[in-house]
Amino acid sequence: MTRFTTDPAVLVLEDGTRYAGHAYGARGTTLGEVVFATGMTGYQETLTDPSYAGQIVLQTAPHIGNTGMNAEDRESRRIWVAGYIVRDPSRVVSNWRAEESLDDALETDGIVGISGIDTRAVTRHIRSAGSMRGAIFSGDAAGIDPDEQVRLVREAPAMAGRSLSAEVSVAAAEVTPARGERIGALAVLDLGVKQATVDNLANRGFEVHVLPQDVTIEQLRAIDPVAVFYSNGPGDPAASADHVDLLRAVLDDRLPFFGICFGNQLLGRALGLGTYKLPFGHRGINQPVLDRQTGRVEITAHNHGFAVEAPLEGPFDSPHGYGRVEVSHVGLNDQTVEGLRALDLPAFSVQYHPEAAAGPHDANYLFDRFRDMVVAHLDSKKDSQ
């Protein structure tokens, strides 16, 4: 049974807008970028996705928590959101796989939340004004002077310009054996990788080496990788110069490369393209994307507040000299670049999450496309020897 109290809580945005509700999860104060996620299921996967570090996440689905939480569905070692906003938390946990309530899990990981507010009103406000800094003040902190609360919010760091990779990455390399016929070692730069991604790659025959975000090109080469993968993760791609430099060295080595989400933005920057902050980002499991190679429209899972600047029509030359590049996937809601493909190198990326542990699975084929690219690259090297 989820515990409910009448403890007060208030959500305060940097423009001074306030929403009063009830404390949910841990009590205290939390600051971050307030964003909304549109998925109607998969809240546990959202909460444990490292890409949400530094963000106060609002669920647009009104009823949250009825299936509880369990260890098997966690995407990482903890809950990463900076705060959590829901309208109607479930009063009971009614799933045979549940091991604890969502409320208890939030308390255990120290996540301050708020419930009982009009989440539709907050969503509409963010869609009009854009994502902004905010704070949840719950319990005794809800009684702080309102002007002081706004001051604290406005002094919090903005997401633009923030590098958060070091906060979510592993401290030492972790290896998952290949399942089935082994292709070779795959170097995964952990910028906030999810367990479902590791599982999908291991299932395709890769021995998955999850590497710390500060790994050097010499350390990466030492595992003799057949390819390199950049994961999803939080933060501003413009603040990740070291990761871009590492990727340029990977491209110079002509190693096959696949990047998702943050990895897509970093491939863009490595190729010489710019990135920019979206007004309110794409978050949820119902984003339509056109795969230009197949002509299919996929429903995909997203969590990104930044995007790549690139010409949408036709191939173009990489400003950094990596040959021809094309936009491979386009978001149909706003024509955002959702994928890149290098035409003269074995490298491609997408802006969304093909592992989509909570669904949908329309884009899971991309792991097969990556495996096929790596196998073809290895075969070509054998033929040339």
Automatic annotation (TrEMBL):
This is Carbamoyl phosphate synthase small chain. L-glutamine binds at residues 51, 233, 235, 262, 265, 303, 305-306. Its EC number is 6.3.5.5. Keywords: Amino-acid biosynthesis, Arginine biosynthesis, ATP-binding, Glutamine amidotransferase, Ligase, Nucleotide-binding, Pyrimidine biosynthesis. The active site is at residues 261, 353, 355. One of its GO terms (biological process) is glutamine metabolic process. The lineage of its organism: Bacteria, Bacillati, Actinomycetota, Actinomycetes, Micrococcales. Pathway: Amino-acid biosynthesis; L-arginine biosynthesis; carbamoyl phosphate from bicarbonate: step 1/1; Pyrimidine metabolism; UMP biosynthesis via de novo pathway; (S)-dihydroorotate from bicarbonate: step 1/3.
